[in-house]
């Protein structure tokens, strides 16, 4: 009898690297995880050691294989999903990083991105991105200037890559990146899916240091053990793929510290008029790219942590549900967590957080309700923007991430969105998406339909409030949002 | 007011005094504070140290509140915490068994369903979180009853749900003994005709049973010849052990 084969996914995240093995049914067979250091040299700066991350990735790969009690030969394909935008520069000759990796959260490029404001419409139109500190292009520019690397970069001696690219370099020896990661640099034209000279000039990044842009799923090369390395996707795009959102309008939402909504918009990029960003969802082999609209909620689960750590109202994040259920409704209380301004779709950096509607009646239970409702209403605002931009109507929301364990939040989401909310069976959708893409590229899975057949509902919540109640609450939420504005005097 | 036990009252007074400030107190200070002879205090303090409510500083010999006492109020495991810690394992259980997975805890003499994973066949199913199951007629309930630290017997009369429901208190006691001995419970068409269920205990770091996890499905799938397929039992027990290991971390 032939030995069973599995697909491995490396999930190179912001705080840890994991390797998860999946079987043909998409079930988890084994998991290995290692955390890496978060380096904070100055306020607002966040760095990683790319060399440490590579060593961790090697470690978890072998642990996951050992943990499953199998041999390398039983791994049919290896896929990669990664924290997006984090920027690594390394020496082509030695293969060693030449400076710390600058993490997506790092805000050192704040002044630089403000200086690029004259090009704002260029970035919007060609790269599909707003000018914020997250994206890689300005981070590269900053590092070239700060470490005096420009000339070596122009000669192609110093190379750039996002984490996918850094891992692919180490695994296969090739300097390549996938199109979803490239779409987060501000340097790729989302219409042509190629590096764009006008964008490169605007940011000041030499072309010679950039990796070759490849599809998200194809065999890039083989590991030393002979395993084909066959996919790379940014983490949110991988979750979209893992949730099998293959049709236009299909949308996933991942609830972690923040929350990311990504909607499949088909084969044409949709320019957002409502503050969302346009990104590549995935590209399988020689097929056309599938585009997506993305909306980020900065504060979701982190508001629950704030209630735990800063207010001490609960002792674990899960207890928010217990506390919220001590009351039947929000008691008239609304919490807008604009801790560092309002993000999509408002983009108001002058806003700050507000708890509105306080009366002597309001208890900590009501505040807990308002905290959960804040995540639901922020989701509603992003969904409304997506519907308006795409001309598609959300029919169900596929939710994943840690907060999906909160039944009250899931019910509230369904209530405010007026659509069913579904939690899929495998909550590790990010790693699953990378595994799916790698398995498709190597023929482990024959087609998208076979992946869809693996997708199962673990739970479903139906709307349980009427339209009048929904509109009444939405109106109050909007009033609370209005009260966050004009707080920071700029 | 009925009769009270003097030594318990004195123990409470000692704890109250130790809790009244951040300092440590010696026997002499406690004796002064409570107006009691040192000899009386020694015995009570030794007992309180023994149960972990009070600790004695090895350097100074003075007394302070013990860690056990400080955790007493927070040792109860929140059901939402239990769901959060179990969710990946419950998904895996449903995935492997191809049946619906359930987690329950005891709540006022019933099983409260705190987590429910749909059977992975995309048929129409409704989330049952928040509903109640009878303890004597469900696999989850039998596991929880068998390990109930308060050992409250299920109160007769035991209501029959099907003709297989155990309604004789003596027979139920024997069944619970069996559950304790083999470490899992079966429910053979005792709640719903045509449905069987399997459950195993989830324990916290102290070994106390805080919940039960199991699967439920059609008798023709889980017990083709009238006997349960043991592979399903092993899936359930694996999941219970995995969650128990997680809770111990």
Strand arrangement within the widest β-sheet of chain B reads 5-4-3-8-7-6
Number of strands of chain A: 23
Largest inter-chain contact set? A-B, 26 and 25 residues
- Biggest sheet of chain A, strands in spatial order? 17-18-16-15-21-22-23
* CATH topology (level 3) name of the largest domain in chain B: Beta-Lactamase
**How many domains of chain B, as an integer?**
2
Q: Please, what is the average pLDDT of chain A?
A: 92
Number of helices of chain A: 16
User: Over the alpha carbons, how many angstroms does the gyration radius of chain A reach?
Assistant: 22 Å
Taken as a percent bin, the fraction of beta residues of chain A is 15-25%
Question: What is the first-to-last residue Cα distance of chain B?
Answer: 45 Å
Class of secondary structure makeup of chain A: alpha+beta
Could you list the spans of chain B in which at least 5 consecutive residues all have pLDDT below 50? none
* Rg of chain B, Å, rounded: 24 Å
What is the CATH class of the largest domain in chain B? Alpha Beta
Query: What's the rounded overall pLDDT mean of chain B?
Result: 89
């Amino acid at each position: 009898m032939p030995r069973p084969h599995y697909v491995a996914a490396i999930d190179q995240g912001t705080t840890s690297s994991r390797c998860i093995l999946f079987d043909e049914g998409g079930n988890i067979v084994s998991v290995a995880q290692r955390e890496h250091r978060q380096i904070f040299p100055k306020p607002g700066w966040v760095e990683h050691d790319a060399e440490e991350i590579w060593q961790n990735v090697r470690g978890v790969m072998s642990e996951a294989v050992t943990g499953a009690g199998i041999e390398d030969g039983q791994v049919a394909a290896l896929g990669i999903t990664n924290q997006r935008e984090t920027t690594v520069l390394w020496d082509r000759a030695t293969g060693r990083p030449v400076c710390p990796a600058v993490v997506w959260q790092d805000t050192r490029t704040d002044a630089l991105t403000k200086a690029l404001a004259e090009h704002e419409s260029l970035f919007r139109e060609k790269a599909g991105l707003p000018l914020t500190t997250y994206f890689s292009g300005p981070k590269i520019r900053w590092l070239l200037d700060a470490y005096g690397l420009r000339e070596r970069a122009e000669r192609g001696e110093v190379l750039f890559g996002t984490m996918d690219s850094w891992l692919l370099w180490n695994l296969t020896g090739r300097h390549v990146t996938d199109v979803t990661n490239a779409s987060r640099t501000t340097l790729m034209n989302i219409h042509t899916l190629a590096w764009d000279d006008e964008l490169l000039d605007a940011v000041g990044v030499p072309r010679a240091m950039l990796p070759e842009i490849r599809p998200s799923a194809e065999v890039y090369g083989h590991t030393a053990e002979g395993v084909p390395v066959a996919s790379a996707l940014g983490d949110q795009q991988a979750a979209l793929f893992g949730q099998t959102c293959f049709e236009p309008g299909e949308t996933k939402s991942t609830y972690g510290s923040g929350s990311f909504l990504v909607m499949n918009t088909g084969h044409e990029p949709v320019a957002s008029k409502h503050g969302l960003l346009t990104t590549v969802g995935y590209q399988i082999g020689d097929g056309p790219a599938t585009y997506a609209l993305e909306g980020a909620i900065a504060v979701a689960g982190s508001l629950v942590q704030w209630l735990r750590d800063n207010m001490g109202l609960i002792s674990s994040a899960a207890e928010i549900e217990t506390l919220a259920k001590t009351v039947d409704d929000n008691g008239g209380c609304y919490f807008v967590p604009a801790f560092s301004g309002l993000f999509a779709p408002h983009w108001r950096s002058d806003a700050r957080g507000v708890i509105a509607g306080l009366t002597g009646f309001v208890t900590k239970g009501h505040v807990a309700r308002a905290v959960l409702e804040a995540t639901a209403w922020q989701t509603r605002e992003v969904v409304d923007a997506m519907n308006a931009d795409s001309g598609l109507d959300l029919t169900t929301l596929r939710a994943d991430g840690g907060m999906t364990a909160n039944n009250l939040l899931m019910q509230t989401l369904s209530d405010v969105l007026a659509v069913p909310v579904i939690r899929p069976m495998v909550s590790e959708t990010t790693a699953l998406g990378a595994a799916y893409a790698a398995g498709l590229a190597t023929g482990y899975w024959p087609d998208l339909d076979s992946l869809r057949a693996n997708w199962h509902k673990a739970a479903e919540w139906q709307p349980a409030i009427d339209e009048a109640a929904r509109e009444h609450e939405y109106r109050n939420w909007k009033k609370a949002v209005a009260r966050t504005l004009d707080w920071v005097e700029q | 007011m009925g009769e009270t036990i003097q030594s318990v009252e004195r123990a409470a007074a000692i704890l109250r005094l130790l809790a009244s400030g951040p300092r440590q107190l010696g026997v002499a200070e406690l004796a002064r504070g409570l107006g009691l002879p040192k000899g009386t205090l020694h015995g009570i303090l030794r007992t309180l140290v023994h149960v972990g409510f009070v600790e004695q500083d090895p350097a100074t010999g003075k007394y302070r509140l013990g860690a056990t006492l400080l955790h007493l109020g927070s040792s109860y495991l929140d059901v939402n915490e239990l769901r959060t810690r179990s969710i990946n394992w419950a998904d895996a259980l449903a995935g492997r068994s191809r049946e619906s997975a359930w987690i329950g805890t005891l709540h006022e003499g019933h099983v409260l369903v705190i987590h429910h994973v749909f059977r992975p066949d995309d048929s129409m199913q409704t989330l049952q979180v928040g509903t109640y199951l009878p303890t004597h007629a469900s696999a989850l309930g039998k596991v929880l009853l068998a390990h109930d630290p308060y050992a409250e017997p299920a109160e007769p009369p035991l209501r029959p749900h099907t003709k297989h429901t155990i309604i004789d208190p003596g027979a139920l006691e024997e069944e619970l003994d069996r559950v304790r001995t083999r470490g899992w419970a079966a429910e053979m068409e005792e709640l719903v005709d045509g449905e069987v269920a399997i459950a195993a205990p989830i324990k916290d770091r102290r070994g106390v049973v805080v919940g039960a996890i199991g699967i439920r499905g059609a008798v023709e799938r889980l017990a083709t010849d009238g006997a349960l397929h043991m592979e399903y039992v092993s899936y359930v027990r694996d999941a219970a052990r995995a969650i128990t290991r997680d809770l111990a971390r």
